[in-house]
Design a protein that fits this description.
This protein has 188 residues and is of the alpha/beta class. It is built from six helices and six strands. The longest helix has 13 residues, at 48-60. One of its GO terms (molecular function) is hydrolase activity.
Length: 188
């Protein structure tokens, strides 16, 4: 299989999940020639500060341009990272961000538990790099209106993906070919 070539190194920023072999980010990582991934945390799994530091540690290992590819809570981690650190980023693909004001299914941490671990206040100013926020019209972790609000505040290009749920294997999305399209757009 030919690897997707990019000028920039792609840093995958997963959400709160552990490694999932059939997740679109895992499959994307296997298709990329220049890629790193933020590893799952072993302790303090809900700590926003620990997640931000994990992103920073991975970025310190990368020379040259970087594209961030974040999913779910990983999107929120990127916003917190950008508010704390300064490093040139070529662009970011922010997919299926959750809404900390929503009610989530039982299998997920509660928004209240995330708030208790430093996830709010969520940075609301423009991100210091170009970004594409890809949102679903039927995501059970965030309404499309909530995603629109985030995109406006962060200065992100908003893409309506349609009815793709939370863009995860449970929604039928392991392979997500549009990620390649968005990465190519950011890599120009």
């Amino acid at each position: 299989m030919d690897k997707l070539q990019t000028q920039a190194t792609v840093l995958i920023v997963p959400g709160l999940r552990d490694h999932v072999p059939q997740h679109w980010q895992t499959l994307l990582e296997a298709r990329l020639a220049k890629v790193r991934s933020v590893p799952p945390l072993e302790t303090d799994k809900l700590s926003c500060a620990a997640r931000v530091e994990a992103i920073q540690r991975e970025l310190e290992q990368i020379d040259g341009p970087v594209i961030l590819v974040a999913h779910s809570a990983g999107v929120l981690m990127v916003a917190h990272w950008a508010a704390r650190y300064s490093r040139p980023i070529k662009g970011a693909l922010l997919a299926a961000p959750p809404d900390l004001q929503a009610t989530w299914p039982e299998s997920y941490p509660t928004p209240d538990s995330l708030r208790a671990h430093g996830w709010e206040p969520l940075p609301s100013g423009p991100l210091p790099f170009p970004s594409i926020l890809a949102a679903s019209s039927n995501d059970y972790l965030a309404s499309f209106a909530a995603a629109c609000h985030l995109a406006e505040g962060w200065g992100s290009q908003l893409v309506n993906l349609g009815e793709v749920g939370h863009l995860n294997p449970a929604s039928g999305y392991g392979e997500w070919a549009r990620a390649d399209e968005f990465i190519r757009e950011l890599d120009c």
